[in-house]
Automatic annotation (TrEMBL):
<dbReference type="InterPro" id="IPR050862">
    <property type="entry name" value="RdRp_reductase_class-2"/>
</dbReference>
<keyword id="KW-0846">Cobalamin</keyword>
<dbReference type="InterPro" id="IPR013678">
    <property type="entry name" value="RNR_2_N"/>
</dbReference>
<dbReference type="GO" id="GO:0031419">
    <property type="term" value="F:cobalamin binding"/>
</dbReference>
<feature type="domain" description="Ribonucleotide reductase class II vitamin B12-dependent N-terminal">
    <location>
        <begin position="42"/>
        <end position="133"/>
    </location>
</feature>
<keyword id="KW-0547">Nucleotide-binding</keyword>
<protein>
    <recommendedName>
        <fullName>Vitamin B12-dependent ribonucleotide reductase</fullName>
        <ecNumber>1.17.4.1</ecNumber>
    </recommendedName>
</protein>
<keyword id="KW-1015">Disulfide bond</keyword>
<feature type="domain" description="Ribonucleotide reductase large subunit C-terminal">
    <location>
        <begin position="154"/>
        <end position="689"/>
    </location>
</feature>
<dbReference type="GO" id="GO:0050897">
    <property type="term" value="F:cobalt ion binding"/>
</dbReference>
<dbReference type="InterPro" id="IPR000788">
    <property type="entry name" value="RNR_lg_C"/>
</dbReference>
<dbReference type="InterPro" id="IPR013344">
    <property type="entry name" value="RNR_NrdJ/NrdZ"/>
</dbReference>
<comment type="similarity">
    <text>Belongs to the ribonucleoside diphosphate reductase class-2 family.</text>
</comment>
<dbReference type="GO" id="GO:0071897">
    <property type="term" value="P:DNA biosynthetic process"/>
</dbReference>
<keyword id="KW-0170">Cobalt</keyword>
<dbReference type="Pfam" id="PF02867">
    <property type="entry name" value="Ribonuc_red_lgC"/>
</dbReference>
<dbReference type="Pfam" id="PF12637">
    <property type="entry name" value="TSCPD"/>
</dbReference>
Length: 956
C-alpha cells in the first residue's frame, strides 16, 4: 500500500526523498468521517455494587456502527478535558484528529514523506483505519498525544536496578512516574545481593525480596489514587539467585495470610477494607530460568545458586525440588510464572548492547533494560472476506501504514526518564500485534486447538512481522536505521534469518492459510534483501499484547491471542437496557461448516439456552472443537493454549501476553508439565492460573454459597409437618386439542385436555407404525404425566426436564414453530409449552413461536407489538432518547441474510459477559471485580479487563 524509493518498491527512497503513500482504504475526494453515519449518545456509567453514578457525559458523537460499549469506554477513558466544561472532548472525531494530526506533523517534521500530498494521504488512511475500527494504538497514545501532558506513547517499560541504595530508591521513583502516566513497568532484581551475602560494611544484605515490599506499597498507593487505571508491574528474579526460594514462596505465604485473616472475619476480597494489609499483591512475579536449569530438572541433578558479587556457587540445590516448589507456588496463587532466558536471548537482535533480563508487566515486551515499547493492535475480523477467507494483501497494507505511524511517534514522544528516552530513541522498539484471533478462527470454521487453527494463526503472525520488518527496512532507507543497528547488524540479520526459517517450516493445511503463508514468504524474502542494503529502522517490531481496553474500542469479540471467552454475550443497547445474545460468529461458523438455515437457527437457540454446544440439535460432534471457549462446558484444555502460543511465538519479536487457565482440580504435576512443555516448544514466557486458587477473588457460584450457608446453619429440632398433595381431576367434558406431528420422519399424534381455566390436565400420545411394546410404554408415560399434572406438578417443570432430551428419532419436524427436535419428548413438551404456557413463562425457558422469532429479527423484541405506540419508524427513533420506554432494538451485524441471531433480555443480575455466563451455567468465573464499576472482569492475556468500563489490571 505504501511505496518507498528502495528495494522492491523502485522509487527515490535511496535518495532520501521520503515515503510515497498509495491510497487503499480511504476514498478520493471524501473525508473518512463523511463515509459514516454519526449519532449522539448519552454515556452514564454506574457502579453496580454501590448504585453510585461514577461518570456522566451526554450528547457524545460516535458512528452508528460503534457499539454502546465501545463509545462508553472511549468517552470515559480517552476523551480529555474536565467533564462539564467546554474544554471536554465530546466527539470521536476530536479524539482521532488530536492523535492523527500529531502523527502527521511528526512525520512531516522528521522527513518521512516525499510530498505534502503524501502526508495528507497518510493522515486520511490512518484516520480511516481508526474510525472504522481496523486497529487501535495503545492506551497512552489516546491519553496523552496532542494534549498539554507529556507525549508519552508507550504502554510498556523495562527498568533496571543495581546493588545500591541509590539505585533501589530511584527504582521506586521511576515506577511511580510510569504508573502515573497510565503505563506499567517490569524489572529484574537479580543484581541485588542476596540475604545470604555480606555487605561491604560487614553486615548482612537485606536481599531483593525485602525491597519488593516497599515497591509494592508504592504501587498500591498509586493504584488507589491514579486517574487512569491501577498500576501494573512485573518483578523477575533469576533462578540461580540465592534468594530464589524466598522469592518463589513470597506470594504463596501471603495467600495463607489472606486465608487466616478471612477466617478471622476480616474483609479480604479484592478491594476489601482489609486486603491492603497483605503484601506483594500489586506485581506479577516471574522466575527467569535458563537451559542449564531446565536440563537439570529433566535429569534430576543439582543446580548451583551463585553469589551476585563474585558469581561463585554458594549453594547447590536439587533442581527438580526447586522446580516443584515453583510449580506448587503457582498452583497455590498463580505466581510465579516462568521466563525462558536462553530462548529469549537467542532471538535478541541487540546482544552486543546487552542481554534481555526482564519484561513488561504482561510479559509480551522483552528488550533492553531502561527501554520502552509503544503498541498497536489490528482487528483481525475486519480482514475476513465475505467468502470467509482472510484478506492477506489488505492486512499487509494496513500493517505498513501502522508501522510507519508507530515509528513516527518515537520522534515526538516524551519519556519518564532520560535513560529510557535514550534507549528507546536509539533502538526504536515497536510492538504491533492483533486482537480477535479466537473470533476469526471460529468464523472460518477452525478450532482454536486444532492443526488448522494453529496453521492459520502462524501464517497471519508471520505475515504481520515479516511485513513490519520489510517496512522497517524501507523506512531505514528514508530516515536511517536505528542508532544501535551498526553495532548489532550481524545479530539482527541472524534473527531475521531465524524468522524466515521458521516461516519456511510452516505447513499450510488448506487454501485459506496457504494464501496467507505465500505472502508471508514473499515478505521475509524482501526483509533479507532490503535489510542487507538498508539496515532496519526498528530493533523490534511485534508482540502479542492483552488488548484489553483497546479491544473493546474496536468492538472485538476476543482479545489478543485468546480464544472466545464464551458463546453467549452480554450486550448493552443504545436506547437503554441490555440483551443476552449468542456471539454472532457462531451462525457464521455454522454456515461455513455447511449447516442449513433451519439447523443453524435450532443450534443457535440451543446455545442461547445452554451457553454451550454439547448435544446441540443436529450439530456433529466433530464440529464441537470449533466452538470451544476459554470458559464453560467445552473449555479448552491447558495444552491447547500452550500449543497456540508455540505456533505464533517464532514470528514475534517479543513474546505473548497470555495465561494458561487450569481447572481447580489441576495438580502441581500438571503445572510442572505445562512449564516444561512450554520450554521445549520454544515459548519465551508462560503464566498459569488455576481456578479459585486466590482467596481474594470474589466468586459468584450461588450454589456453593447456599451450600456453605446451609452447612453453617445450626439444626434445631422441630415438629415435622407433612403436606399431602390434592388431585384436581378434569371435568367429564373438557376442551381438548389433537396435534399431528412428524419428527425425523416418525409420525405421531398428541391429544391434550385442559381444565375449565385453560390449564393443561392430561396428554395422550400415539405413534404411527409402532409395535405393541412401544405403544404400551407411551400410554404409561402419558398416564404418569397426566396424573402429575393433576396433582399440581407445573407444566414448566415437565418442559424444563424433557425439552432438549436427546434420542432417536430426531431432526426436522413439520411444525413451523418447532423446526428441529432432538427427540419425540423434546418436540412434545416444546409444543405443549407453546400451547399452554404464557409468553413470560415460555421466554424464561427460551421457547418462542415462529412469529415471535420473526418479530425479534425485525424489531429486536419477541413480544407482540404494543398498541398505540406509533409507527415502527417512530418507535425505533425514540430509542435514542434516554427516557425511551419502548423495548430496545437489538443491533445485529449480519454478514448475510441467512445469519440467525438469538437475543433475549439479559438477567437482572448480569452486567457483563462474565456475570451472564455465571448465571447461565451456574458456575463461577474466577476473576476480580472492577474497582471502577463493580462488575466482574474477565481474563485478557496475563491481566484482567472490565467489559463494563474498560478498566484493566495490565498495561495495554
Amino acid at each position: 500500500m505504501t511505496e518507498t524509493v528502495s528495494g522492491a518498491h523502485q522509487a527515490s527512497a535511496s535518495e532520501g526523498d521520503g515515503v510515497r503513500i498509495e491510497r487503499v482504504f480511504s476514498t478520493e475526494g471524501v473525508h473518512p468521517y463523511d463515509e459514516l453515519t454519526w449519532e449522539r449518545r448519552d454515556v452514564v456509567q454506574t457502579n453496580w455494587k454501590s448504585g453510585e453514578t461514577v461518570f456522566e457525559q451526554r450528547g457524545v458523537e460516535f458512528p452508528e456502527s460503534w457499539s454502546l460499549n465501545a463509545s462508553t469506554i472511549v468517552t470515559t477513558k480517552y476523551f480529555r478535558g474536565a467533564v462539564g466544561t467546554d474544554a471536554r472532548e465530546w466527539s470521536l472525531k476530536q479524539l482521532i484528529d488530536r492523535v492523527v494530526s500529531t502523527y502527521r506533523k511528526g512525520g512531516e517534521d522528521h522527513g518521512y514523506f516525499a510530498t505534502s500530498a503524501d502526508a495528507e494521504l497518510f493522515e486520511h488512511e490512518l484516520t480511516w483505519l481508526l474510525v472504522n475500527q481496523y486497529f487501535s494504538f495503545n492506551s497512552p497514545v489516546w491519553f496523552n498525544v496532542g494534549t498539554q501532558s507529556p507525549q508519552q506513547v508507550s504502554a510498556c517499560f523495562i527498568l533496571s536496578v543495581d546493588d545500591s541504595m541509590d539505585s533501589i530508591l530511584n527504582w521506586y521513583k521511576e515506577e511511580g512516574f510510569i504508573f502515573k502516566g497510565g503505563s506499567g513497568a517490569g524489572l529484574n532484581l537479580s543484581r541485588i545481593r542476596s540475604s545470604k551475602e555480606l555487605l561491604s560494611s560487614g553486615g548482612t544484605a537485606s536481599g531483593p525480596v525485602s525491597f519488593m515490599r516497599g515497591a509494592d506499597a508504592s504501587a498500591g498507593t498509586i493504584k488507589s489514587g491514579g486517574a487512569t487505571r491501577r498500576a501494573a508491574k512485573m518483578v523477575v528474579l533469576d533462578v540461580d539467585h540465592p534468594d530464589i526460594e524466598e522469592f518463589v514462596e513470597t506470594k504463596a505465604r501471603e495467600e495463607d495470610k489472606i486465608r487466616a485473616l478471612r477466617d478471622a472475619g476480616f474483609d479480604m476480597d479484592l478491594g476489601g477494607a482489609d486486603i491492603t494489609s497483605v503484601q506483594y499483591q500489586n506485581a506479577n512475579n516471574s522466575v527467569r530460568v535458563n537451559d542449564e536449569f531446565m536440563r537439570a530438572v529433566e535429569d534430576g541433578t543439582g543446580f548451583g545458586l551463585r553469589s551476585r558479587k563474585t558469581g561463585e556457587v554458594i549453594e547447590t540445590v536439587d533442581a527438580r525440588e526447586l522446580f516443584t516448589k515453583i510449580s506448587k507456588a503457582a498452583w497455590e496463587c498463580a505466581d510465579p510464572g516462568l521466563q525462558y532466558d536462553d530462548t529469549i536471548n537467542d532471538w535478541h537482535t541487540n546482544p552486543e548492547t546487552g542481554r534481555i533480563t526482564a519484561s513488561n508487566p504482561c510479559s509480551e515486551y522483552m528488550s533492553l533494560d531502561n527501554s520502552s515499547c509503544n503498541l498497536a493492535s489490528l482487528n483481525l475480523m475486519k480482514f475476513l472476506k465475505d467468502d470467509d477467507t482472510f484478506d492477506a494483501a489488505l492486512f499487509a497494507q494496513a500493517v505498513e501504514v501502522i508501522i510507519t505511524a508507530m515509528d513516527i511517534s518515537i520522534c515526538f514522544a516524551d519519556f519518564p526518564t532520560e535513560a529510557i528516552g535514550k534507549t528507546t530513541v536509539d533502538y526504536r522498539q515497536l510492538g504491533i500485534g492483533y486482537a480477535n484471533l479466537g473470533a476469526l478462527l471460529m468464523a472460518m470454521g477452525l478450532g482454536y486447538d486444532s492443526d488448522g487453527g494453529r496453521a492459520m494463526a502462524a501464517a497471519i503472525t508471520s505475515l504481520m512481522t515479516g511485513t513490519s520488518y520489510r517496512r522497517s527496512a524501507e523506512l531505514a532507507a528514508v530516515v536511517g536505521p536505528y542508532a544501535g543497528y551498526a553495532r548489532n547488524a550481524d545479530a539482527h540479520r541472524r534473527v531475521m534469518r531465524k524468522h524466515q526459517a521458521a516461516n519456511d517450516a510452516v505447513r499450510p493445511l488448506h487454501a485459506a492459510d496457504r494464501d496467507v503463508h505465500e505472502l508471508a514468504t514473499q515478505a521475509w524474502a524482501q526483509v533479507q534483501t532490503l535489510g542487507e542494503t538498508n539496515g532496519f529502522r526498528n530493533a523490534q517490531a511485534s508482540v502479542l499484547a492483552p488488548t484489553g481496553t483497546i479491544g473493546f474500542m474496536m468492538d472485538c469479540d476476543t482479545t489478543g491471542i485468546e480464544p472466545d471467552f464464551s458463546l453467549v454475550k452480554f450486550k448493552k443497547l443504545v436506547g437503554g437496557g441490555s440483551m443476552q445474545i449468542v456471539n454472532q460468529t457462531v451462525p457464521r461458523a455454522l454456515t461455513k461448516l455447511g449447516y442449513q438455515a433451519e439447523q443453524v437457527e435450532a443450534i443457535v437457540e440451543y446455545i442461547s439456552e445452554q451457553g454451550h454446544v454439547v448435544d446441540a440439535p443436529g450439530l456433529k460432534p466433530e464440529h464441537y472443537e470449533v466452538f470451544d471457549c476459554a470458559m464453560g462446558a467445552r473449555a479448552l484444555k491447558p495444552m491447547g493454549h500452550v500449543r497456540m502460543m508455540a505456533a505464533c511465538q517464532p514470528f514475534l519479536s517479543g513474546a505473548i501476553s497470555k495465561t494458561v487457565n487450569l481447572p481447580e482440580s489441576a495438580t502441581v504435576a500438571e503445572i510442572e508439565d505445562i512449564y516444561l512443555q512450554s520450554w521445549k516448544l520454544g515459548l519465551k514466557a508462560t503464566a498459569v492460573y488455576r481456578d479459585n486458587c486466590k482467596v481474594g477473588q470474589p466468586l459468584a457460584d450461588a450454589k456453593a454459597k447456599k451450600a456453605d450457608t446451609a452447612a453453617e446453619t445450626p439444626v434445631t429440632e422441630v415438629e415435622k409437618v407433612v403436606y399431602k398433595p390434592t388431585r384436581k381431576r378434569l371435568p367429564k367434558s373438557r376442551v381438548a386439542r389433537t396435534t399431528s406431528f412428524t419428527v425425523g420422519g416418525a409420525e405421531g399424534y398428541m391429544t391434550s385436555g385442559a381444565h375449565d381455566d385453560g390449564t393443561l390436565g392430561e396428554i395422550f400420545l400415539k405413534l404411527g407404525k409402532q409395535g405393541s411394546t412401544l405403544a404400551g410404554v407411551m400410554d404409561a408415560f402419558s398416564i404418569a404425566v397426566s396424573i402429575g399434572l393433576q396433582y399440581g406438578v407445573p407444566l414448566e417443570t415437565y418442559v424444563s426436564k424433557f425439552a432438549n432430551l436427546r434420542f432417536e428419532p430426531a431432526g426436522l419436524t413439520d411444525d413451523a414453530d418447532v423446526r428441529m427436535a432432538q427427540s419425540l419428548m423434546d418436540y412434545v413438551f416444546r409444543r405443549l409449552a407453546l400451547d399452554y404456557l404464557s409468553f413470560e413463562d415460555r421466554a424464561a425457558l427460551g421457547i418462542y413461536s415462529a412469529d415471535e422469532r420473526q418479530r425479534h429479527l425485525e424489531t429486536g423484541s419477541y413480544e407482540p407489538p404494543v398498541e398505540d405506540t406509533g409507527t415502527s419508524d417512530q418507535l425505533i427513533g425514540d430509542l435514542s432518547a434516554p427516557d425511551a420506554k419502548a423495548a430496545p432494538t437489538v443491533e445485529v451485524d449480519a454478514p448475510d441474510a441467512e445469519e440467525v441471531a438469538v437475543a433475549k433480555p439479559a438477567p437482572a443480575g448480569a452486567h457483563t459477559s462474565a456475570e451472564l455466563l455465571e448465571q447461565i451455567t451456574g458456575t463461577a468465573v474466577d476473576s476480580p471485580l472492577c474497582f471502577t464499576c463493580g462488575t466482574k472482569m474477565r481474563p485478557a492475556g496475563s491481566c484482567y479487563v472490565c467489559e463494563g468500563c474498560g478498566s484493566t489490571s495490565g498495561c495495554s
